[in-house]
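Protein Record: Sequence and Backbone Structure Tokens
======================================================
Scope: a single protein chain, as residues and as a discrete description of its fold.
Tokens: labelled as protein backbone structure tokens, with as many entries as the chain has residues.
Position: the record begins directly beneath this header, with no further notes in between.
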Amino acid sequence: MHALDILGDPVRRRLVELLAAGDQSAGEVSRVVEREFGISQPAVARHLRVLREAGFVASRPEGARRIYRLEPLVIDQLQDQVDRYRSLWNQRLDALETEIARGKRARKENTP
């Protein structure tokens, strides 16, 4: 699954944001997300599973708890994808800027 597809979901995006602050238990992140999005613990667990299966997070048992951490390699991959889009956006924005300047010049030349 494409990284941007994974992060297209606001719940998963929020989970990634929470884990970017540091390792946390499933219960800790679940409480925050349940409160903010009004969803159940099993729904949060499904989102964590999607993140884990996609390689965004890793988990380890710690007693009766599961501790989740964000995989740093995923952030690098996301940055690569964003950089690719940024270059496309910059090209298009540069072209738009050129067209706007042409339009302004043409209006000045045609104004009596």
About this structure: The beta strands are 24-25, 57-62, 65-70. The longest helix spans residues 72-110. The chain has a mean pLDDT of 90.
